[in-house]
Queue: 2 jobs
Job 1
Amino acid sequence: DTGVSQDPRHKITKRGQNVTFRCDPISEHNRLYWYRQTLGQGPEFLTYFQNEAQLEKSRLLSDRFSAERPKGSFSTLEIQRTEQGDSAMYLCASSLAQAGANYGYTFGSGTRLTVV
Amino acid sequence: DAKTTQPTSMDCAEGRAANLPCNHSTISGNEYVYWYRQIHSQGPQYIIHGLKNNETNEMASLIITEDRKSSTLILPHATLRDTAVYYCIVRGNFNKFYFGSGTKLNVKP
């Protein structure tokens, strides 16, 4: 399978616990994005990486959230001290950014987080 | 990036063409129109994109008006599996995708 992989698919955690999600992008893609989606809404941008550099973070990404892409390949998204409002689907996408080209994103299936 | 306006929901009979409209009146010359869809509990799936010419692929056709202020996604023979939320997005090169609430397409037998 050469698509975008996310792990785990589902995560249930107690309020106050830390959680970490992993995303494996398409191997030749240099850009990786994290989005969050709550019920009935479209995905909302959180952050993105070009190779290993985190180039932009949304205001939605509070201090409790941190994302890394240490070797420019897979990425992790960690949420510390989870709150019930963090319950959502967390989506990862990757793309190839090249000058003069316009490529779309390929999304993973997402990680559904439930904070109880 | 320009904003888009889509109807909240639409119905379509199975086997008929589904025509999903999108308004993007503030689109600029270098911005592309993208369509994605999201089936329940899955990640968004790319359908098609275009700049100014009409486009067709194995999934759908994209019709962009001459002034580029609106577009229509056409699913020529809708099936029950096409029931999903369809997102119309306008995006410039290297910019992020901003999703609105999309159109919920209900394909009915």
Job 2
Amino acid sequence: KQEVTQIPAALSVPEGENLVLNCSFTDSAIYNLQWFRQDPGKGLTSLLLIQSSQREQTSGRLNASLDKSSGRSTLYIAASQPGDSATYLCALSTGGGNKLTFGTGTQLKVEL
Amino acid sequence: GAGVSQSPSNKVTEKGKDVELRCDPISGHTALYWYRQSLGQGLEFLIYFQGNSAPDKSGLPSDRFSAERTGGSVSTLTIQRTQQEDSAVYLCASSLGGSNIQYFGAGTRLSVL
């Protein structure tokens, strides 16, 4: 069974800081990996999707990397802003149909 | 265009009652997913539809849970004889196919008293 862990569980940083969120998984046979953000009382917003054949994806201030052999993905956020405050979830697809197995989440707070 | 729509946004029910949760996917999306988010268990997969068929319902926690999808569009998740442990946020997502980005609705928060 796929186990997905995110470290740290919570993180508080001052505005402007660069930061890295970590996601580790036990089964390297994945189809793709997605990073989501979740705001309180709202659904999930997809940030980046990395196919299993890719090493990284970038969107604006966000960069996600994937290392299947070590079972790790990182989400790098550059020049963090208060609007980045949310819970960040990584999710893996390991089979047909693309059902997702979610990580435990990192709750990020960016302070002024 | 409209995103994934779920109704109701909040539902409070008494233990033992049946509830129906509705999901309207993005138009044209053939794949539809139900997930559950609870404090103790995180976010868990429940069931996946491709068109009107459910090739994977492995995440449904018990036979009190069922779901259907009609016309390749709207889906309903039914929970019979609700229990307090069913309290959670039920999230629906849709995608163009089985291997693309999933777009999530805002969820239905279910509280069983």
